[in-house]
Write a structure and sequence with these properties.
The chain is mostly beta strands. It has a five-stranded mixed β-sheet, with no helix packed on it. Strands 22-28-27-25 form a four-stranded mixed β-sheet, with no helix packed on it. It has a three-stranded mixed β-sheet with strand order 1-5-4, with no helix packed on it. A hairpin with a 5-residue loop joins strand 9 and strand 10. The protein is rod-shaped and about 220 Å long.
Length: 370
């Protein structure tokens, strides 16, 4: 009978350890004492040198091995048998899970019209990302660089105004005459803003008219105003009666019944206006005494000419019968005391001429009594 006894590196048979292959025989006697059974024991010792292989499986936060997800580090082992059934290869799988909490940093790079970052010039907005890996090779820091390019602005403003609107205030600055002006400001983005003002000053009407008209009661008077750069006319007054034939022409006719002030407003085709105040001074008929008695009795001692004092530019001349001037006064009219060069004039009748500019001359006689 053949018996096989096998083992890896060592075989124990009948209490004896065998470290190498050998053949052991024994004979079993029959009951008569004859050899009848021969047993052959083949002791086969397989010499095996075990091999250990180490495998590393690494990942960030998770490692998948043989279809299984591992979220923490662990060691997995498996053994590969030889064909004789002996352990011969030991595989050690080191599953290394690196726990990583990624951090994102945001950086802003701003500039006017262009931004230079990492030697690259950007003229428009952009986003640049870079990642720093941990020593295990995991992404751990994400840097986001926002490139913000702000723009300078250029603007132009055209303004056409009347002289009455000067000074013209623009961008917190005052301008007193026509022209083109350039100012540098800071826009909302914090960049340079170049602003240009083209300022035009339109022509306004130039009014020429007397300040005061002396008008006699019942006498229509032409208000002879002139205007340059004119277009529209308007005479206004606070009175309920204007005493004008028309109030929308440049030269109306005024027939006043009382003193009155007018405001003449002239508007040009460009919409600019000028104003002028015109005073109408009403004069009633002059009534002068025709006799006086310069005898120093305190009664009617002078020829009273105070009525003429309100007549601008009026003058008085008094003549004797021969045509000699015996008294004259102009502008600030004085009363006549009946003397000439300090000498009393004789009793009699004298003749006078009163000249009132822009109206007429008045003549008559005055008698001296004593």
């Amino acid at each position: 009978n053949n018996f096989n006894h096998t083992g890896c590196n060592k075989v124990t048979y009948l209490g004896v350890d065998y470290f190498a292959s050998t053949v052991k025989r024994d004979t079993v006697k029959s009951y008569q004492g004859c050899d009848s059974v021969y047993n052959v024991h083949n002791i086969v010792v397989t010499s095996v040198t075990a091999t250990t292989n180490n495998f590393n499986h690494t990942g960030c936060n998770k490692v998948t091995y043989l279809g299984v997800d591992y979220f923490s580090s662990i060691i997995k082992r498996d053994t590969v048998k030889s064909y004789q059934g002996c352990d011969s290869i030991y595989n050690v799988h080191n599953i290394v899970v690196t726990s990583v909490t990624a951090t994102t940093n945001n950086f802003y790079h701003t500039g006017c019209n262009s931004v230079t970052y990492n030697a690259i010039n950007y003229t428009s907005n952009a986003t640049v990302r870079d990642t720093f890996h941990s020593y295990q090779g995991c992404d751990s820091i994400y840097n986001v660089h926002s490139i913000v390019v702000k723009l300078s602005t250029i603007s132009s403003t055209n303004a056409s105004i009347c002289p009455s609107a000067l000074p013209f205030v623009w961008n917190v600055q005052s301008f007193y005459s026509a022209g083109s002006y350039v100012v540098h400001l800071t826009n909302k983005a914090g960049c340079d803003s170049v602003a240009t003002l083209n300022l035009t000053v339109k022509s306004e009407p130039i009014i020429t008219v007397k300040d005061t008209f002396f008008v006699w009661l019942g006498t229509p008077t032409l208000l002879d105003a002139t205007a340059l750069n004119d277009s529209i006319y308007k005479w206004t007054t606070i009175s309920t009666n204007t005493f004008l034939n028309y109030d929308t022409i440049l030269n109306p006719i005024c027939t006043p019944l009382s003193n009155i002030n007018y405001l003449l407003t002239v508007t040009s085709n460009e919409g600019c206006s000028s104003d002028k105040v015109v005073v109408i001074q009403l004069n009633k008929e002059i009534k002068l005494p025709n006799v006086f008695s310069p005898n120093n009795d305190g009664i009617n001692d002078v020829w009273d000419l105070s009525t003429l004092n309100n007549l601008k530019g009026a003058s008085v001349q008094v003549f004797d019968r021969g045509g000699t001037i015996v008294f004259q006064s102009r502008y600030s009219i004085k009363n006549w005391d009946g003397t000439r060069n300090g000498l009393a004039m004789p009793v009699g009748t004298y003749y006078y001429i009163i000249d009132i500019p822009d109206y007429k001359q008045i003549s008559g006689s005055i008698t001296i009594l004593r």
